[in-house]
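pasting for ref. prot 1 ->
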Amino acid sequence: MVALGACLIMQVSVSSPAFNAVTSRDPARLAAQVVSGIGFLGAGTIIQNGTNIRGLTTAATIWLCGGIGLSCGSGYFSAALITAISAFAALIILSRLEKYITRKAPKIIIIVDEEPHNFKEILDVADHYGIAVKDIHSDQLKGKKPKFRISIMIMPASSEEIAKFSEELQDVLKPEDFSLIRK
């Protein structure tokens, strides 16, 4: 939809007749507005939840689709095709690479009674032990008494570092339940 809309707008910009003999049209002006508008759409797809940011790839892909549409609307079909194929290949390859890298990443699941208002304590402990946190988020568990699950995905590290990090987390957070999942 983004690419088709951008293509249509570019075709209108390039093909529309001038209003009179004195004025001239500038297709770049309408194309610039398309780029700005698509940037606004992309910004709406980006969501920050604590330290976790989602939607960056989606935003970049929406913006790229607009560029492909503008390219087609301008008559640069080969550039649009090469860009679309390259983007498709990059998205597939990078997605598989990310899955490969993170499949060995240990995950820690902690159940606590109080809602974690910020993850600064966890990140400070991780920093102290040289642990790289890839993803951290929390969600509320259903039940009579509210409990919260904190999921922490860390980058692979030595067993000793992970053990020390886990012990310190348990001391700091005093969890009801603690699980370390190594893949």
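and prot 2 ->
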Amino acid sequence: MTRFFGRHHIAIPGPSILPDRVIQAIGRASPDIYDPELAEMVHGIIKDLKTVAGTKEYASIYICNGHGVWEGSLTNLFNKGDKVLVLATGIFAPGWGGFAEALGMDVETLDFGKRNPVDTETLLERLSRDKKHEIKAVLVVQVDTSTSVRNDIHAISKAIKSIDHPALLAVDCIASLGCENFYMDEWNVDVMIAGSQKGLMTPPGLGFIFFNERAREAGKNVNLRTPYWDWERRVNPEEFYQLFCGTAPTHQLFALREALNMILHEEGLEQVFRRHGIIAEAIWAAFDTWSSKGQIEMNIRDKHSRSHSVSTIKLLPPNGTLLRKWTRDHAGLTLGIGLGMGTNDDPKSTGYFRIGHMGHINPNMILGLLGSIEAGFEHLGVARGTGSLEAATKVISQT
């Protein structure tokens, strides 16, 4: 068999699979960017984005990827020299912190390793020592795409509030928005950033910053704000073009409108969360069965800390790389690379691979994916437990 027949399954943790309807929404003639209908559509998109984020406050759209909204959020909130605390559970929160450092901020990192979520007791201990309240914000990801850890954002927020520390809570939901439960207002999150290319099932190119009045007030008169990233210009624009600091990304917006229709107005957001949970549980059941014997191990041991959108798997090196090559060439399945998981014994992360299970995904696709991985394990002679597909099927059939 070769990879050239049938529909290829891209199971990387973003960009995720595009629904046919989203692709079709892009394939239309360019609109008149001054037509009131376009402005009306965009205002509806912003309203729906806030519903997905669980907020009634502010949302702004930028033409960028996730790294763009890392920078955009920082420039709206801080002055040079301000101190931020980064909670690291992989490579992405430190990446955000690296942008803060490059912008001239004082960055401190609490590193919880590559296999564990944030420990709130450790966070409380550090914030309790900050008697002068020098820490202006806490930066954390809900799901780290490299390790697949899921942090309990509500618990982190409650920990900060429990000692009345005034630090803002800023959360990266790039790998989780539209996949994991997230309730920005209810959980007292001040800033949240996300992108279009994962749970929102839209091509890369749109970044989102959600923020509340507390964050807006904290960011007044900061010295890092620049014209393009300035969220104040986008909150109450006098002209439609000011929402995007220029020409609107029209075809990206058509795609996003269709994706939001599917998420909110057809399937329903809570059902979307439930579907992602069921699919994740099926994948975990398969890998926990495989890992009962031999070389296979889920990177995150505790189920409560496993992501519903991406799973990182550990094998003996170089079997992660070899499996990805085999499934790509012989099963029509592309798995994600081991990202940022290098060790002294495996510096290129060849013993790891990742499965993206976010967005436009269903049980049929997941069972095919697991069957292809089983075939790859068999080809490579990877030692493993038996009954994994039955375990996954049981999860799906019972829910």
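Residues 294 and 383 are 5 Å apart (CA to CA).
The radius of gyration is 21 Å.
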